[in-house]
Amino acid sequence: MDPRQCPVCGTLNTTDLIDIVEMPIYCNRLWDSRDKALAAPKGRIRLRACKKCGHVFNSAFDPSLLDYDQQYENSLHFSSRFQRYAKQLAQRLVQDYDLHDKDVIDIGCGKGDFLALLCELGQNRGLGFDPSYENNRVNHNAASRFTVINDYFSERYHHYPADLICCRHVLEHIQHPQAFLQSVRRTIGKRLGCIVFFEVPDVFYTVKDMGIWDLIYEHCGYFSMMSLFHLFRACGFDVLDLQSSFQGQFLCIDAKPDVAAGIAADPGDEEMMDFHEYTCAFTNKYQEKINYWETELGFLGQNSRKTVIWGGGSKGVTFLNVLKNSKYVEYVVDINPHKQGRFVPGTGQKIVPPEFLADFQPEAILIMNANYLEEIKNRTEQLNITPTFMAV
Ligand SMILES: [Zn+2]
Known about the structure:
By secondary structure, the protein is of the alpha/beta class. The protein is built from ten helices and 16 strands. The strands form three sheets. Strands 6-5-4-7-8-11-10 form a seven-stranded mixed β-sheet, with helices on both faces. The chain has a five-stranded parallel β-sheet with strand order 14-13-12-15-16, sandwiched between helices. Zinc ion binds next to loops.
């Protein structure tokens, strides 16, 4: 397949956005020595935008580099804000589609948290699929209500009943989303009452709101409302609802199987004009943001200011890896004890607990998530340090 070809609509009418030559392929995998962290496997992110359907994709993506085994940890689920959001979403699905005493399938169910919610709220029976699932990690009241198969979902599981098939934060990891969704459609067959719910990150958060520290190798596809709609229509689904969620960071689509063969509608002109406008400006805005932080970090380094980053999640890992001057960042602070003592892939900074800063006395703290600024300031006051804070 031509790397310029859009994986959603198949056109070659796509254009280059940015090229990040080396990024660790697993942004959430930390290493137990600096040497191993520096030698972490890397891949290339070469983003292209589709002018026909409004999709963005990594044209240099190589799926053979990735293996989602049990070491994969999706850090989103630890955030209380994300958990509140997930609960509201599960309530909405149970209510809208009257999911009571029904069968629910969750493709890429992770640790089973969302499946457990759906089962609890509607007294439903659940079946999850996830190759990274660990049996001993589940601690839900509803655990007896659901089963997880330690495998990728495929048509060999077509005989399992399903009133709802949900699939959250999976599609953006799949290089050929058409083939995947067509296979889901074939699995449903003539069960036309089956509802399908998918959730993905919204590309507008990246290209319009410049959420560039969220670019990671694992995400090979970045959907817009237009490309998501196009994909579902082309794969034989009727779109019931399509909306932005989680403060513009995600897209949610509700669909049901269509009896007619897949016909993709062309996206509306207005939406495509917005998409063109943002993607055309993106390359320059991306470079400006990179230049700004190279200069800031360069200044800190050349003046021997002791600098740390607060936040060892994927944003921090991306930030450190795309900036050459990140060599001036000495440590990464994180409150998660599972991360402390380990090393950042690609750049090798050690992850330390907040208490470490009392001795280290940093002069600048870069904060990867401004939502936590107050919390971090309180913590540093207790540690008797008075650094400069910089929200990234
Ligand atoms: Zn396209």
